[in-house]
Write a structure and sequence with these properties.
Elements lengths: L8 H4 L8 E2 L3 H8 L5 E8 L2 H11 L7 E9 L2 E12 L4 E8 L5 E9 L10 H5 L12 E2 L2 E2 L6 H22 L2
Parallel strand pairs: 7-8
Antiparallel strand pairs: 1-6, 2-3, 3-4, 4-5, 5-6
Length: 178
């Protein structure tokens, strides 16, 4: 007698592919954030312990990392600003994003590079991302509910991205501001 084994449909749910969408790579993001740039130069940014403490005080969050992925944008010899690459957890998965900063450490623009969650992708909408423009760690307004609107169904993505941008704005204030 032959036996047939059936796998319950619910067991196949663990085999389902994860959702992920890559919208931009780092090079595309830097050209989008700084279209007038003629050169991009990677910069080593390693925070000292006192700088990490300053970042924590400004952001109200742990500095999280000593080393930051930073690219300087230039038009000839003129510094246009910086792009900082980072990842934050959405609800379960990482969200990769880039923050464009002006030389005075204000936010120029943010771009979502890769969004891996099945819900909450509305954080990629231009209207939501524009809320960050012109804000800095010192001026405030970089928290959900105080300068940044929440998106229903994307609360964790909104909160974690906003926290990440606030942390980067503090890093810019402490280590990048010219």
């Amino acid at each position: 007698m032959r036996y047939q084994h059936w796998i319950p449909l619910a067991a196949c749910a663990i085999c389902a592919p994860a959702f992920s969408a890559q919208y931009l790579n780092a090079e595309q993001a830097q050209k989008l954030i700084f279209p007038e740039a003629t050169a991009f130069r990677p910069q080593d940014v390693a925070l000292s312990l006192p700088q990490m403490q300053q970042v924590e005080k400004l952001a109200g969050l742990a500095a999280r990392s000593v080393n930051w992925r930073v690219v300087g944008a230039y038009n000839g010899d003129k510094l246009l600003g910086f792009m900082v690459l980072d990842d934050v957890i959405g609800k379960f998965e990482l969200i990769s994003y880039a923050v464009g900063l002006n030389p005075d450490a204000t936010v120029r623009q943010i771009e979502i590079l890769t969004y891996r969650e099945s819900h909450g992708g509305e954080v990629r909408l231009p209207a939501w991302r524009r809320q960050f423009t012109g804000k800095s760690a010192q001026t405030g307004g970089l928290t959900v509910g105080d300068g940044i609107a929440n998106i229903s169904g994307a609360t964790l993505s909104c909160t974690h991205l906003t926290d990440g941008v606030r942390r980067i704005a503090a890093v810019a204030q402490v280590a990048l501001k010219k």
